[in-house]
Specification:
The longest helix is centred in the first third of the chain and has 17 residues, at 47-63. It is built from 12 helices and 16 strands. By secondary structure, it is an alpha/beta fold. The strands form 4 sheets. Strands 10-9-8-11-12-16-13 form a 7-stranded mixed sheet, with helices on both faces. The protein has a 5-stranded parallel sheet with strand order 4-3-2-5-6, sandwiched between helices. A two-stranded parallel sheet has the order 1-7. It has 2 domains: 2-170, LmbE-like (Rossmann fold, 3-Layer(aba) Sandwich), CATH 3.40.50; 190-346, Vaccinia Virus protein VP39 (Rossmann fold, 3-Layer(aba) Sandwich). The protein is elongated and about 65 Å long.
Length: 374
Amino acid sequence: MSTSSNSTRACRALVVCAHPADETLWFSSVMARYHTDVICVTCGWDHETRRRRQAEIEAAAAAQGVANLYILGYPDDPRRQHGQRLDTARLIADLQRVNAGGYDAVFTHSPYGEVNQHPHHQDVSYAVHHVFGNVLSVAWNQYPTVVHELTPDEYQLKQHILYWGVANFGDHHQYLGSRYADVWGFGTSPYEIERHRTIARLAAATQPRRILEVGAAEGHLTHLLRRVAPVDCVETASVFAARLAEQGLTVVDEPDTHAYDLIVLAAVLEYMPDPDSYLAGLMSPYVITDTHPHFPLDRVEKHLADRYELVDRRFIAPRWEPQRHGQTVEALLVYKIGSDTGLWRCRYNRINPHPTGHPRLRFDPDPGPTQPTS
């Protein structure tokens, strides 16, 4: 059964989720269609993380029109062993205090714990099914009985919450960067290494004199691009900007994009507050965009096609990999969603950067070591 927001908004629903951000990641369509209360079971593990995570879920709930938000405050300490469980007997007792008759439907996690088989998701699902009778759980590896299709506006709101600091997957680069070295595994992940080398090959084919890299993070891609031409970096997270400076890399705040032969936008457009306007204002001779399926290339083309032509396009296939940060490899598989990398050439640039014809490749994509230097 497929439902629309208009058909169910008058009904009351209860969402019971394990962590802040789960309410948006798994149940945003529910909150868009029902008069919804949310119970969040955990909320950080010390004063600082509790304060931060509570602020996140409160902001996310307000943005999505949640009627009532209840935080049970169970500890969620990532330093514990992965197999450590929630106190389900206590959780069942807490949930039994809820007036189940006040809701038309109750939503919670899959009994399997979704993609990562998270034990907290499993425990919450177990407790909710034990207490309530009208439960709908996330259909992970199951055939769904109810399907909610997000409208474009609903999806845009979900993206805003998840990517821009309202919820757990938001712009937490500052927080994550202060806790981990190479938090995304750019220096060790085979997927990320392949993605960066693909971008560097495309950059070398343009023979630029000056490159602007937007969203340089810790500089793994930057070091490859520097073998092609001098690079200026834009990085809004101060912890990463400081690391770039420590490596002798140039960080600029408000660059004139017209001053560069090549602008590299690698996995950054989805984090920008207004990526469409940014793309619409570009006029450099070349642009490289590296996006994933949730920010499709046709969205990029919509704002570049009047000035640019797509001259090369490369795909990096999605895959499962062990989670990596720095030299640490976790016993947890993460899904690398795949990337779509495009090289765009401006039709109207007055300066031909290659007066002698087709550019000569100046970048050796495989210098010997299996990992980029950092």
